[in-house]
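Late entry, written up from scratch paper. The run itself happened at the end of the previous shift, but nothing got recorded in the book at the time, so transcribing now.
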Amino acid sequence: ARTLRAKFLASQSQYAEAVNGVLAILSNLGEEFPQDACLEHVTSTVKETEVLLKDITKETVRSLPTMTDNTKLNAMKFMDLLITLSFYYSPMLVPLVACRMMKLTFELGYCKDTIPGLAHMSHAIMHYSDDVHMASWMGMLAEYLINGNLDEHSLRARLTLQHCTVRTFFEPFQSAVDTCQNGYNSARIAGDVDNAMLNLWGYCIVHIFSIPDLLGLHKKMVNFLYQMAKSKRISVLIGLMSYFNTATAFIGNEDSCGIDAAIELKTNNELFQIAEHTQNSLLMHNVIINQMYVHCYFREYLPVTDLAEKYQMSTRAKRVLDFYFVFFEGISALCLARDTKQDKWRKIGEKNVRYMTQLLEYSTWNFENKLDLLQAELHYLNNHHNMAELSYQASIVSARKHRFYHEEALACELYGIYLVENKMIAKGLEQLQNAREKYVKWGATKKADGVKDFMDLANQTANYLRKASR
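Output as recorded:
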């Protein structure tokens, strides 16, 4: 009954009440967790637990005795629930609870909630220890224990998004589409509507950042929104709306987006207010990332940096899409530094170049083209024109090779702007035409129209200068 109450509260977006209720239950079971934990405490706790897990193998887990302490078995169940709720309301709890689940497992033995604990621990190590190899190994152990388990489909439905979180850092980002699809299929088999809808949501997130088919995704999201509304999964319905708004912004035709009044589609401003009112930090994260995405691609750089500042002030927790936060903020800050000559933008841009350089150690596939484009903008800012051209070209080649076609379009566009601004107009227009064609292929008609407008302006300026010089 207590589990159902917590889930009901969460379904009504009452995350604070749900989390506090589970914390009270765990306190009665002898488990205390601070809601106001600082980043330093979380990091040190994760690193301590990582030492405990250093030599863990499949055989180690298999050889553990069975947990028999009923109080702690009950605690493990509620800690798993607490982690699920904390992603929305108090994300700094996630790594602390995962660490405690692992410590109880090694002190008292294996139980069915050990598998979710391993998956959550993989997420914690990835974000708060930066040991990608250890995080990967924890995820692989969890996957190994899921395969063939009597609750295989139920576990896969619940833990798919956790696996995607870690795999994003060392496997091609596009592969997470199939992973989310498999999670959705397992949820349907298990009769788990909540996680079926969550996996559809995850599918859309991966798709909009990595698959060159906005129009196809837009139609699917209309269907998914109806499914979520019909099943009364309001939280995930609201969460998907920010991604739907992003697709609509790139495609255009906002007034005929295919959603009728029954869905009550929200604007990003309304979603932001809902996130603030319900203290839903996950929704806040998604709304801000999506707004940064659109503003960055439409070269509205000051709103990107304003959103970045707002996000940094709202949380110190780490989430999987933070590398896009770094990418969008970095591009925007470096362009602003060039336009305004203000040193504060240079410092932000340089910081984000350093961060993306670290990410490249995890995955060339996912991060190389992004780093090359950030470096191109930094070289342009520093008037290192030969290096800037080489970096723009490298970003285009890398994005194409690794199938980030919309990011290839962005690199072509920024390279074209660089060439136009440096009086290589014919060459620049060629790159801009490449960008426009790739945006059209992606389905981003409104964005492609914006590139066409810039090309027309560049042509007009070039014609005027030619006439003036005669």
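The mean pLDDT is 91.
(Scratch paper discarded after transcription.)
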